[in-house]
Amino acid sequence: xxxxxxxxxxxxxxxxxxxxxxxxxxxxxxxxxxxxxxxxxxxxxxxxxxxxxxxxxxxxxxxxxxxxxxxxxxxxxxxxxxxxxxxxxxxxxxxxxxxxxxxxxxxxxxxxxxxxxxxxxxxxxxxxxxxxxxxxxxxxxxxxxxxxxxxxxxxxxxxxxxxxxxxxxxxxxxxxxxxxxxxxxxxxxxxxxxxxxxxxxxxxxxxxxxxxxxxxxxxxxxxxxxxxxxxxxxxxxxxxxxxxxxxxxxxxxxxxxxxxxxxxxxxxxxxxxxxxxxxxxxxxxxxxxxx
Amino acid sequence: xxxxxxxxxxxxxxxxxxxxxxxxxxxxxxxxxxxxxxxxxxxxxxxxxxxxxxxxxxxxxxxxxxxxxxxxxxxxxxxxxxxxxxxxxxxxxxxxxxxxxxxxxxxxxxxxxxxxxxxxxxxxxxxxxxxxxxxxxxxxxxxxxxxxxxxxxxxxxxxxxxxxxxxxxxxxxxxxxxxxxxxxxxxxxxxxxxxxxxxxxxxxxxxxxxxxxxxxxxxxxxxxxxxxxxxxxxxxxxxxxxxxxxxxxxxxxxxxxxxxxxxxxxxxxxxxxxxxxxxxxxxxxxxxxxxxxxxxxxxxxxxxxxxxxxxxxxxxxxxxxxxxxxxxxxxxxxxxxxxxxxxxxxxxxxxxxxxxxxxxxxxxxx
Lengths: 291, 366
Fold this sequence. Notes:
The complex is a heterodimer of chains A (about 290) and B (about 375).
Chain A: H1 3-21, H2 23-30, H3 38-60, H4 67-72, H5 74-107, H6 113-125, H7 128-139, H8 146-153, H9 161-186, H10 190-197, H11 202-213, H12 215-231, H13 234-239, H14 250-260, H15 262-288
Helix pairs in contact in A: 1-15, 5-9, 5-12, 6-9, 9-12, 10-11, 12-15, 14-15
Chain B: H1 12-15, E1 24-32, E2 35-43, E3 48-52, H2 59-67, E4 74-79, E5 82-83, E6 94-97, H3 109-119, H4 124-137, H5 153-165, E7 171-175, H6 183-199, E8 203-208, H7 211-217, E9 220-225, E10 228-233, H8 235-240, H9 245-250, E11 254-267, E12 272-287, E13 293-295, E14 306-318, E15 321-328, E16 332-337, H10 338-343, E17 351-356, E18 362-365
Parallel strand pairs in B: 3-8, 3-9, 6-7, 7-8
Antiparallel strand pairs in B: 1-2, 1-4, 4-5, 9-10, 11-12, 12-18, 13-17, 14-15, 14-17, 15-16
């Protein structure tokens, strides 16, 4: 998914909603040549309802009076804090490792580049639980890498906060890589050539010219990755488990609370919904329309 | 090959093959799909050489090869006695002014110019001081803090020139330096650029498809067509003795080849032209479109020695003149006033008679 796609989708949804209630609907009744045929209109409205009603239901059932109390309860607060810290850390890891990888994919030619690119995007479509299992096989205490980490450095990642960051980064980094790679491909390479004729090495050109030029794309990719990391469930619970204050992030807390304390689950869900809406709005207004 | 250096420039070292050759000596061969560029290019320090040619002739490829942005398939490239062909662009003492300038949009004019000195190891303060001096020289001291998008086309062009010069290049390359400007600014900027190029002590190579830019800015023209050099010389020489259709059209001349016997030249196309020169063998014959007179019927009392029957193929306005494109016995271009065109009732397909005085023609050996 590239930031441009997201922007397009966001813009379309936005317009579509407005038109549904606006002048376009009157034209349907008029039955003119420009009208929307019923076989298309009905499923479209149904789809819209299907997507919006659950969210509405969530808001309708939210215990607004007890919200402040819910959000300040230790379990919720711990989960919220842990989620924000881990998602931010995972985004940072994705940036540090993912931007160079995006550059490699966009700016160099090497055998098997297409395959590497496909493998990078694999976690996008891979069921997150499978990702968690795979991480255990790699970084678990008996994993092919994890056993050496344990033996040599005494580092064990599973079922730790660091493990949460690893799981989230695994799932979120591809979003960033694909987004930044798209921006890099769209960026004018001749600026890098200009930098080279001024004596800049390839790395200097990247640092002083390319990076500032693609900053909006990196920011958009980071937000996508951050949002993905924040909502990560499957890989996290598989690789890092579900320990309050250590690995229990918001989605995990929501799932657990739903069985014992539905009101807390709803409150947490509303917070996550608010964050998602903020991300969407931020992406559209700050970066998409600007570029 | 003769170098046409700037007045007062000492070329003796170059011509006697002194131990330390100065300037540019290159043969550029670049294969690009089915296209092959193969040109030889030499230039003395202080000389401004223009690569002139139609779009797709390979001029820009030549420039990219000189800058190291396109690898040479074969040939060599030496500058002041140093082989450059194996060096990456960042290691070449070459400055480039790109066609659309490519000023870094996130940096101010000052930091754009300071970029090169920074890369060469200057401290931030040193680089900025150098940059400020260059901007001052370009008359842009007031715009040092402006981002490129706030600069006019002419200002951006000067910032780009300052940026290229701030690294102290031994070879300055300019790719269509005036193409991005509108007609009004172009005149000013061309004059300024000419001054700056005249003050530049190393080799400058500029690429253009505009003969006027080339003739105003360059000491010597190298005309490139289809990846080859077809003619080179001073602007005056090329304007007077074009050797291809392209150059003839550029400098506004009708050009033909033929075989001369005395004052008569039998053109390769068939008809003959009477000239004032007395020549034998293969020659070029050239005459300006303005020298042609058109008549709606066969003229009887004309003293002109050349008369051809033609048909109007097309017309277009050129300022207050109309350029008429003629086919028939001799394909040629004729310029006439709008009044004359109206009186002749010219329209595509109309039959006209073209006359030309022998004194208006110019014949020279191939």
